[in-house]
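Milestone M4 deliverable, item 7.
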Amino acid sequence: ISADEPMRLLHLDASPRSERSRSRGVAGAFIDALAGRHAKLAVRRLDLWDMALPELGGATIEGRYNLIMG
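Output delivered:
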C-alpha cells in the first residue's frame, strides 16, 4: 500500500488494565508511526472492556467444538 492510498485499521483493545496496559502503549506507538507514514489512515478503535459482549461459557464452547468435530 502506498502512502497516498487510503488505509483502514481496526484496533481491538482487549486489555483489562486500561491506561496501565503496556500492550495498549505499544499499539498506540505503532498506530502513531503508521499514521506518520500514511496520511489517509483511518483508525477505528473498539475497547472490548467497554462493550456489552455476551458471556462465553463452557457449554457454548463445547457446542462449537461439537459442530466442528461432528
